[in-house]
Design a protein that fits this description.
Elements (H helix, E strand, L loop, with lengths): L2 H10 L2 E3 L10 E6 L9 H11 L4 H8 L3 H15 L4 H10 L18 E5 L14 H11 L4 H8 L3 H15 L4 H10 L2 H4 L2
Antiparallel strand pairs: 1-2, 2-3
Length: 197
């Protein structure tokens, strides 16, 4: 089965992840056929994930829909969980790699009634620009590329959350991006080596 088709079917609710996203330690996502009792994406979760995939802040969507940012964040987290993803970065990485705008295909692909399949999510490049970023900033970007939050990065590096936030601001300034989402798009769109020049 083609990975792009499988990604679209996961989005469409035909497949569900076997494990919780946080339990996954690799880029392989084990899926099983969805049953009527399975929780698949709601219309609002699809809307929020489409918006997040584009890189815009969730606060903007909350303002546009006249709902609280907490509600949008909840839909975002629940949607990621239902797709078996851990972060916005993984969402953008998968959608970009599978050339999908997260819209289900016109015709469903039936994989010979297979009970389980594996969706292999693309891995971000581990190579980082060395000319412009300090060693600490490169480490922060590497950990961020794995989908870690600022708090998780701080714990992993043995520093405080505020230091990580400051390092992100320096990274954004050096790479001329305005947000973590733009950083993700930059890492997805260009060979990492070319970012430093």
């Amino acid at each position: 089965m083609q990975q792009a088709t499988l990604w679209q079917q996961l989005w469409d609710g035909q497949w569900v992840p076997l494990s919780v996203a946080g339990e996954r330690s690799s880029n392989e996502l084990l899926l099983r056929r969805a049953k009527p009792v399975d929780r698949t994406l709601t219309a609002r979760e699809r809307e929020v994930l489409r918006f997040a995939q584009g890189g815009a802040p969730l606060k903007q969507l909350a303002l546009a829909l006249h709902v609280s940012q907490t509600m949008i964040s909840t839909h975002f987290r629940e949607g990621l969980k239902k797709l078996g993803l851990r972060s916005r970065f993984e969402l953008q990485l998968a959608a970009s790699a599978f050339n999908s705008n997260l819209t289900p295909p016109a015709e469903a692909f039936e994989p010979h009634d297979a009970p389980l399949v594996v969706l292999v999510l693309p891995e971000p490049s581990p190579v980082l620009p060395s000319a412009r970023l300090t060693r600490a900033e490169r480490e922060v970007v590497q950990l961020s590329a794995k989908g870690l939050t600022n708090a998780e990065i701080a714990t992993a590096r043995g520093t405080c959350v505020r230091t990580i936030a400051n390092q992100f601001q320096a990274i954004f300034r050096k790479l001329r991006v305005g947000s973590r989402s733009e950083l993700v798009r930059l890492l997805l769109s260009q060979p990492i080596e070319s970012i430093s020049s």
